[in-house]
Amino acid sequence: MIEDKNQARTPLSELGEFGLIDHLTKQFEVKQESTITSIGDDAAVLDFKSKQIVVTTDMLVEGVHFDLSYAPLKHLGYKAVVVNLSDVYAMNAEATQITVSIAVSNRFPLEALEELYEGIALAAKIYNVDVVGGDTTSSTAGLIISITAIGKVNTEDVVYRKGAKPNDLLVVTGDLGGAYMGLQILEREKEVFKVNPNNQPDLDAYTYVMERQLKPEARVDIIKLLKDLDVKPTSMIDVSDGLSSEILHICKASDVGCDLYEEKLPLDPQVISTCEEFDMDSTTVVLNGGEDYELLMTISQEDFPKIKANPHLTVIGYITDKSIGANLVTRGETKIPLQAQGWKNFDS
Ligand code: ADP
Ligand code: MG
């Protein structure tokens, strides 16, 4: 619980805007060849020679996308970077730079922003991206973080949401539903804490799902794996809103339908046990939960031998003609049309 920490609290007003920017950004070193000029001028200068460039932005708003009563600021910084990089990898591109913009109220001391930037710097280091700029401004209430990620890709390697063809295999990386169940645990512990702040919860049984929520990873390893296997997916998207919504995006963009098999959905044992504890249906959690940051792709049948038996890739269905629609084939072998629920941030 960040704000209860009894450490130094340096007011932001002590540094001023330029002092703050300088303090937060002096740790960043340039690693990418494409970064010609980084932080310090009016704009960064990048040179990608003949590559195509992908650009993507995501904004995280306190109270909407995160809750500082359980999300440590360092993890939040890390996650803010990762969710953006995930979009770059979903284009089959290599992430190279990010910019970081923050709006922050004076209830945050310098030390809080240092923690946030520790997470940002860690993610930038692990994923080998340069932090080349950003903006710093004040907000009247909460914290807002907006990150833009830039990546490069050979023209012939770009993978779009469109491109899936009937008979292609529907493939997903890793396992699904963990981040949503982690959120259920964190919300529950927050309520327990409100009633009894001295309660010392034993959360050992939930470490995996909590980590999936608080400190997700983007699947840069899969982009490399696909290159090594010499597989170019026919379409791809990252799983940020829940499997159902992502499948529907691919079907719509590609003008196709699909059959998704309930029995094939990849589940971690901890997701199954946590779902049982909360009396939730794991299939519903996978379809509508979100924030798993896995990659969903379609792969041509002829590439099946190359991906078969790979522990990172699970075939969960196949693409059909559009007239069939997008369906879940249940364990009882009934077909149910898939529905997009996604994150309901706009619901009251
Ligand atoms: P300008 O007035 O030209 O917008 P700023 O004073 O806002 O410039 O920023 C100075 C430099 O610091 C720029 O290179 C900008 O990209 C960078 N910068 C500002 N805020 C941040 C931040 N929160 N994180 C990283 N870089 C930042
Ligand atoms: Mg500025």
Give structural attributes.
348 residues; Phosphoribosyl-aminoimidazole Synthetase, Chain A, domain 2; 10 helices; 13 strands; binds magnesium ion
Overall body shape: globular
Assembly classification: single chain
Main beta sheet strand tally, sense and closure? 7 strands, mixed
Which fold name corresponds to the CATH topology of the largest domain? Answer: Phosphoribosyl-aminoimidazole Synthetase, Chain A, domain 2
Number of H/I helices = 10
**Poorly predicted tracts of residues:** 343-348
Strand order in the sheet with the most strands: 8-10-7-11-9-12-13
Which value, in Å, is the CA radius of gyration? 21 Å
Level-1 CATH class name of the largest domain: Alpha Beta
Proper CATH architecture of the largest domain: Alpha-Beta Complex
Strand pairing plus helix content: what structural class? alpha+beta
Order of helices and strands: HEEEHEHEEEHHHEHEHHEHEEE
- N-to-C CA distance: 26 Å
- Bound molecule types: adenosine-5'-diphosphate, magnesium ion
Q: How many distinct folded domains? A: 2
Report the CATH superfamily of the largest domain: PurM-like C-terminal domain
Hey, roughly how much beta strand do the residues contain? 15-25%
